[in-house]
Amino acid sequence: MERPFPSAGTVTLMGSGELTESMARVHHWVTSRIEGPLEAVFLDTPAGFELNADSISTRARNYVRHHLGVECALATFKSKEMATDAEVRNAVRKIEHANYIFAGPGSPTYAIRTWAGTPLIETVARRVDEGAHLVLASAAAIAIGHYSVPVYEIYKVGADPHWVEGLNLLAPYSLDLTIVPHWNNSEGGTYDTRFCFMGKPRFDALEALLPEWTVILGIDEYTACILVLGEDACHVMGAGQVTVRRPRGVDKVFPADSTFSLDELRSEAMSLSAPVLQAPIKESAAQASEELAHRVGEAERTLTAQKGGTSDGELAGQAFELAQAIERAETGGAGEEAVARARAELKSLVDLWGREIGASGGDLVANLAPFVELLIDLRAKLRTAKQYALADELRARLGELGVVLEDTPGGTTWRKR
């Protein structure tokens, strides 16, 4: 039988442990398929917002040097807004010359926002189609699916379960996948952190939001699922197993050292000639108004309790979710009175957050890093809504914490003072 993608390379998706001794076997297996010199590159985007992004890149490059015996180039693309044309060209050039492209931890939503629509990710996709090998772990693996779980926003900040549009990098191979690493995570101990820290109740809610054609690919920690696109096959390697969850909760489990067809990952709605499926339609005006009322109610309860048991991160998350709900309600034609009330609650939330965060001791910049992008997005939404005083207050509060916002033609970036 003729293979549908004979020239394509491999895409390796790791549940975790990409820089551990135990996973070196996976890296060796992938590189054993490369004919000629190994040309490796590490792509630093997923952790580009983190203050220790350079140390993560150094660790990854040292790992490649130690375990694979070659120097690993660095394709740096930490920020779409901050990168110069020369820096973008340099990163693209390194990817074009690489046959082993590696990316890993960080934030999946940050990776999606930074990579989307850039020549960088287009070059990655083209190189895989030409036969290069792509190795993605954790955040980077999540980002290339059709729908991606916003881990930080839900697990760290307290946002309600929701999906974001991923890069859908595997659609040309007739794969409509939602990729969930850390499938068997147990760090919670007494509470459930399976399914990429979501836990079963939240993951059940997430699964109910997916369109029926999407297939979930769950990858255990210290486990890799290697998609050999040119052979239309998958290999499982590592300490755990891979779970393929089809629509309506039907699971197939593939243990370590097993091989299965890529058809196991294809839903009935996908075929080699099928177009890329689109995201669900936007919510109705009634749904937008209902969500707005729900968010306002949450804000009122928090304000009545004067924070109560709500963390600073959860306060920021509540403010962000309320700002999103206001934006959707306005677009959907919600009543002016309801929107005005919501804006007033939003101002009170930001005021409370500012007072609480200002009263906290210590250097909080590192703690703010996981959700500082949310606060930047919140400020942008406030400015769009002409809530300039509130946006300026948010900027000032961040400044007090040592986080400097810089507005550029390409958007807002941040740095530590």
Tags for this entry?
single chain; 417 residues; alpha/beta; Rossmann fold; 2 domains; 15 helices
Structure write-up:
- The chain is an alpha/beta fold and 417 residues long.
- The chain has two domains: 10-265, Class I glutamine amidotransferase (GATase) domain (Rossmann fold); 285-416, no CATH class.
- It is 42% helix and 18% strand.
- The chain has 15 helices and 16 strands.
- Strands 3-2-4-5-1-10-11-14 form an eight-stranded mixed sheet, sandwiched between helices.
- Strand 10 and strand 11 form a beta hairpin.
- Helix 10 (285-304) runs parallel beside helix 12, helix 12 (336-359) packs parallel to helix 15 (388-400) and helix 14 (372-384) runs antiparallel to helix 15.
- The longest helix has 24 residues, at 336-359.
- The chain is globular.
- The chain starts with 9 loop residues before the first strand and ends with a strand.
- The model is unreliable at 271-283 (pLDDT under 50).
